[in-house]
Amino acid sequence: MVKVESTLCSQEIVEKKTDLSEAARIHYLTPENTEFALTEGKLLSVRVDGELYPVVYLHCSFPHSNKRMFISVRTSENQEVGMVKSLDEFPVDIVRLLDEQIHMRYFAPIITKVINIHEEFGYSYWEAETTAGHLQFTVRRGGGNVKMVSSVKVLITDLDGNRFLIEDVNQLSEKEYRMVEMSL
Amino acid sequence: MIKKNMKTLPEELKGFINQSGLQEEKILYWVNCDRGIDGGFVDTYVILTEEALYRLSNGQTFQQEKTFKGFVSKTVNKDLKPLEMNQLKIERIGIDEIHSIQVVNLIASGMLVIKAPNERAFASFTNGNMARAVKLESIFSKLKKNESIQFQKEWGEEEDAAACPHCGMIYPEKGRPVCPKCLKRHAIFTRLLGFARSYKKSIFFIVLLMLLNSATGLAIPYFQGTILFDQALGGTGIFAGKIALVVGIIIFLRTLSLLFGALFGTMNAKLAANIVFDLKTNIFSAMQRLSLSFFQKKQTGQLMTRVNNDANELQHFFIDGIPYFIVNAMNIVGITIILLIMDWKLTLICLLPMPFVILLIRWVFPKLWRLGWRRHRRVSILNSIISDTVQSARIVKAFGKESVEIDRFQKANLTFSDVEQKFNKMNSTIFPIINLITQIGGILIWAFGGWRVMHGDLSFGEIMSFVTYIYMLFGPIQFMNNIAGWWSNCMSAAQRIFEVQDAVPDVSEKEDAVHLEKMRGEIRASHVGFCYEPNKPILKDVSLHAKPGQMIGVVGPSGAGKSTLVNLISRLYDVTDGEILLDGINVKDLTAESLRKHIGIVSQEVYVFMGTVAENIAYGNPECSVEEIIYAAKIANAHDFIEKLPDGYDTMIGTGGYSLSGGEKQRISIARAVLHDPNILILDEATASLDTETELQIQEALESLVHGRTTIAIAHRLSTLRNAHYLYVLDQGKVVEEGTHEELMKLNGMYKGMVQKHEDALKMKEVI
Fold it and tell me: What keywords appear on the UniProt entry (chain B) (predicted)?
């Protein structure tokens, strides 16, 4: 193959190109510019470059693949205050606080044991042991209400939109897997 | 354990409330906040009275068990403790201290945040209680503003409607009045048979022919065995030596059986086609009667395909199911009787392997079914990859990602091939095994029967007949073994079809609805609110007034709720709050016919139906004359392009027909509205997707159309609203500004900003 050089050398092109991170104008929150704190009302507040946001909520950009990176910090009016690139950048106590806030927003019982799934008239009735106790819920068949959200994780959404998770489908027993598989 | 989803407070709580000095009758509203703020499920109640907001909770005690909506629990856990009243803590916050209550959406749940004076997470709840929480928020805000609050009964109504009238269970799905607990499959079956009622005669003949077919079929082995071997060849009985006659009878019986078979087959095919035709017509008309929301719900697409598939499923029910069930049942009974009469001992011996066959089938079939399901899923994935790549061929090529797509396909193909192989392996192993076992029965007959023949207890002819009958028995038994699954499939299919038939439209006409022959065209919307889902309001407190003949402009960013507003005016949906009056009459009190007759919509989503251009224009008024069609096309600026088409107004358009450009379709839909000749015209971004030149042409068309009609025009491009008498600026579901163009420009607010941006954009275009 013959390589043809462009009239502009590659160095010049790089200089002329806009940097994506610049174009996106994402404001990263770092331990240097940000102070998180728990309010008396058990909510999260943040001070960024001296400006106080009395109540903010954490939105994970990748809630299924990695909750700990790219966390968008938003006000209740859905205005983005900034983004935390990785939780690990922050000191341990702040990480704990942010973890709690993430858990508050994304709380979904994790299924530890599938006891029974039976189907009738377009609904499947689930009975399972979870991290939040023994639960019984109803799922509408089809429409992606039981779906793989990663190679091992299954997300189950019931009639009201309540969410339940199977963290690792490979950890299920053969019998449990058979029941879950028929609902996928 | 406190019963959930109750409209009145749980009894245990009432006692507690009275003891706490809080009177039950003072309660305005309450919500069960069943989620802990930090996770887990709890029993917390938030109660609103005119004086204070209360929270009753048992601290951080999590529930060990929870049953969500729709689950019919068969077992009751007796170990569960009831809500322990002595552990309940009550917290009171005076209304004066609270500035606001806000419902914050979390993922799959919600949280009540109160501001008193600082913001505070007060309680959290799962999605099922979202509607009640939103209501509490709204009642509190009315209370704060000293607005009148209507009383409890009204708030419970929606929940009343959603419960099964027999057992009181809340339906698992709102808007789907199906109670799995009370649903009887037999009832569905009877109802399904109702479709066949008008074909009683054909069914009678079909069953008769099938029985005759079976009877002649059953006689053949007897003639082939006992009569041919023992009598004709053996030289005994009335057929002794009459080989030709016996062979003749066998041929005759076979022909007769074939004839009966062919006859019932033809009749059955005709009947099934008729029934499925009735069924499809029935479903389609049932669907047309339903409200727009039915079609816009997420599962509509699925439902429609399903209905089509379900109709086919039921076709099998009528063709392969019922008749074969009758015949197979008769065959089993008939053959068993014949066998028992011939030799009951031998019958029992040859039935020996049967339990093994049944056990094997029971054991293997679920596995096979699962593999089948897995294979089906893999095929779907494979198919979606193919359709994905074909549809996005341009992107794939632009990014040069052909090899990535090939890899993706290969991967899916490989997994599919794995499953396919497993399925085929099992399929091809299990059936020979089943056959082998069943044939053991036949071998056993040969062995024991042969032994008895040698002892002279049985004739050779009898044993021949016997073996043939045994083989004839296996088919029907296999059929019966699969019947449970088949029955359940058919009944589910029938249920889904009946569901569409029984669905109640969200927007329905009142019995004493008023019909307006003439309409002046006055529109008044007062304090209109609307939401598809609780806590996701699309419109909030929107008021609007249009005098007859006026042109009203509605502007605002996308997602502001503009299209929803016009959908409410034409009553494609019903308002959640407030009211909409046309000529002073609430739209809910008007007949659907008066609304459709007097309101015309030209929207951004243009749709042409399968048919000619003329038919498309005349859609709303098929009785109109040819001149009227041409006038309408002329007014809509469509006449010129139609004349250019080789087939003129007779050009077939729509799916599979001549393809029109966006602007052309738009002009056809305007012509449709022109011919419809409404008093109220709604222009919903009618020109938003067009280029400037086409837009100008269509603008001209619209200007002549709006004259003398009340018009509500929604537009992104403000130039299209230059003739509007009055403008409303909508943002996030609220009217943020209103007035004439001049007044709004003076306001120096959002409208002015939009106009300036628009002008800048136009200038940019000129420069370019």
Answer: ATP-binding, Membrane, Nucleotide-binding, Transmembrane, Transmembrane helix
Residue A91 has a pLDDT of: 94
For residue A157, the chain B residues in CB contact (below 8 A) are 108
Q: Which of B69-73, B158-162, B254-258 has the highest mean pLDDT?
A: B254-258
Beta-carbon contacts of residue B358 (< 8 Å; ≥ 6 apart): B477, B481
Instruction: Please say if the pLDDT value at position B161 is more than 60.
Output: no
**A89 and A35 in a common domain:** yes
Cα–Cα dist B144/B656, whole Å: 60
Residues of A in contact with B130 (CB under 8 A): 160
pLDDT on residue B154: 41
Look at domain B185-502 and name its CATH class.
mainly alpha
pLDDT value, residue A168 = 93
Q: Which range has the top average pLDDT, A50-64, B229-243, B299-313, B657-671?
A: A50-64
Measured between beta carbons, which residues in chain B are less than 8 angstroms from residue A126?
71
Do A64 and A86 belong to one domain?
yes
Which of A122, A138, A181 faces B492 most closely, judged by CB atoms? A122
Mutation choice for B interface testing from A71, A104, A174 by most B CBs within 10 A: A104
Minimal C-alpha gap between A129 and chain B (Å):
9
State the DSSP H helix or E strand holding residue B542, giving kind and residue range, or none if neither: strand B537-546
Q: Which residue has the higher pLDDT, B692 or B382?
A: B382
In terms of CA atoms, which chain B residue is nearest residue A40? B120
Which of A116, A160, A165, A183 to probe the B interface (max B CBs under 10 A)?
A160
Question: Are the C-beta atoms of residues A130 and A123 closer than 8 Å to each other?
Answer: no
Which single residue is written with the structure tokens 């919500």?
B31
User: Nearest-CA neighbor of B253 among B219, B210, B214?
Assistant: B219
Please report the residues numbered 96 through 155 in chain A whose beta carbons come closer than 8 angstroms to any beta carbon of chain B: 100, 103-108, 120-123, 125-126, 132-138, 140, 142-143
Identify whether A122 is part of a domain.
Answer: yes
Give residue B304's pLDDT band: very low, low, confident or very high (50, 70, 90). Answer: low
Superfamily of domain B523-767: P-loop containing nucleotide triphosphate hydrolases (3.40.50.300)
Q: Are residues A117 and A102 in the same domain?
A: no
> Are A105 and B106 an interchain contact pair (Cβ–Cβ within 8 Å)?
yes
Q: Which residues of A touch B492 (CB under 8 A)?
A: 121-122
On whether residue A139 sits in a domain, the answer given is: yes
Q: How far apart are CA B718 and CA B286, in angstroms?
A: 41
Tens-place pLDDT, residues A93-135? 999 999 999 999 999 999 999 999 987 766 788 999 999 999 9
> Above 70 in pLDDT, residue B316?
yes
- Of B284-288, B382-386, B667-671, where does mean pLDDT reach its minimum? B284-288
**pLDDT beyond 70 at A151:** yes
Structurally, chain A folds into a number of domains equal to 2
Test the A interface: residue of B1, B73, B102, B109 with most A CBs within 10 Å: B109
Q: Which of A63, A89, A106 is the last residue of a domain?
A: A106
Kindly indicate the confidence band of residue B152, based on its pLDDT and cuts at 50, 70 and 90.
very low
Structure tokens at B567: 């959908």
Query: By three-state DSSP, how is residue B516 classified?
Result: coil
Nearest-Cα residue of chain A relative to residue B41: A132
* Contact: A76, B113; criterion CB under 8 Å: yes
Q: Is the pLDDT of residue B303 over 70?
A: no
Domain interval for residue A142: 111-181
- Ranking B189-193, B328-332, B543-547 by mean pLDDT, the lowest is B189-193
B7: exposed, middle or buried (Cβ count in 10 Å: 0-12, 13-18, 19+): middle
Q: Is B531 helix (H, G, I), strand (E, B) or coil?
A: strand
Say which residue the tokens 């537009």 belong to.
B715
CA–CA distance from B120 to each of B48, B55, B98, B686 (Å)? 17, 13, 11, 46
